[in-house]
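Q: My labmate handed me this sequence with no annotations at all. I'd like to see what the chain might look like in three dimensions before we decide whether it's worth expressing. Could you predict it?
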Amino acid sequence: MANDKDIITCHVLDTSAGKPAKGIRVKLEGGHAPLKTFESQTDDDGRIKAWLPYSGAHSSGDVPTYTLDDVLSEVGDNSNWTLRFDSGSYFGAGNTLFPEVLVTFTVAKDQHYHVPLLLSPYSYTTYRGS
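A: Here is what I predict for the chain of 130 residues:
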């Protein structure tokens, strides 16, 4: 990674509180089959700038060592990716209509993608940021 941000970043704003959504777990899935999964957690400003390879609780063997740049360099010109926001844990069980928010988008080679999520317990919206 040449700078301090991965090619895919996101930002979550809690519109019901009027502030960044700190501490939301987010998974990023994509690439060629078998899909690669990354994870991170929003920082104090509600942002994710870098991803770590996901190793599930029931995984056995070596911890994955690939990076997002590695996976993106192996795919063709376009690949589909999904962000999975754990909004249920953020708002608390039973306090949101959307316990998980999925945003699927297409990534073209050599472009940066910033995906903001405006989130409240009963609505959300997203767009391609800069």
